[in-house]
Amino acid sequence: QVHLAESGGGSVQAVGSLRLSCVVSSDVNFNHCMAWFRQAPVKEREAVGARVSSDFIVYVDSVKGRFTVSKDNAKNILYLQMNSLEPEDTAMYYCAARRTWYCGPSPFTADDYNFWGQGTQVTVSS
Fold first, then answer.
1. How far apart, in whole angstroms, are the C-alpha atoms of residue 73 and residue 62?
2. For the segment 5-49, what is each residue's pLDDT rounded down to a tens digit?
3. In this structure, are residues 112 and 98 in contact, taking their beta carbons and an 8 Å threshold?
4. 53 in helix, strand or coil?
């Protein structure tokens, strides 16, 4: 089985920065489609950014230019660097992975992801 574990969340003031980490544990080398999602109270789960390939990362409009998804292949860690944080970014953040390397044409669909971490809370104050 694949296990994902997020860390790095916390409380920060607006315009501050945080870097989230997602450690991937797997019996084999893991290079499947992965993404970061978030969910705030009273809101649906939404994608933040997806690592379609090593050189192709896609982001939702609300975080473009502020968030960066990257991966340390040697350590099997997926990162989410968050800069210029806003109160609207407050949410529980999750990393997720599919059973396949193929992300398809819709990498922002939560139901297409099969493995999920427990989440790490990010709270941004004004």
1. 27
2. 999 999 999 999 999 999 999 877 778 899 999 999 999 999 999
3. yes
4. strand
Give the closest residue to 120 by CA, choosing from 92, 80, 95, 81.
92
47-83 pLDDT per residue, tens = 999 999 888 999 999 999 999 999 998 899 999 999 9
- With a CB cutoff of 8 Å and minimum separation 6, the contacts of 60 are 46, 47, 48, 49, 108
Could you give the CA distance from residue 38 to residue 41 in angstroms, rounded to a whole number? Answer: 10
Residue 101 φ/ψ, nearest 5 degrees: -75, -20
The amino acid occupying position 105 is P
What are 65's two structure tokens?
């230019």
pLDDT, tens digit (0-9, with 9 covering 90-100), for 93-109: 999 999 988 998 899 99
Is residue 69 within 8 A of residue 59, CB to CB? The reply is yes
Which tokens belong to 1? 């089985």
The answer to whether 30 and 2 are in contact (CB under 8 A) is yes
Distance CA 94, CA 14 (A): 21
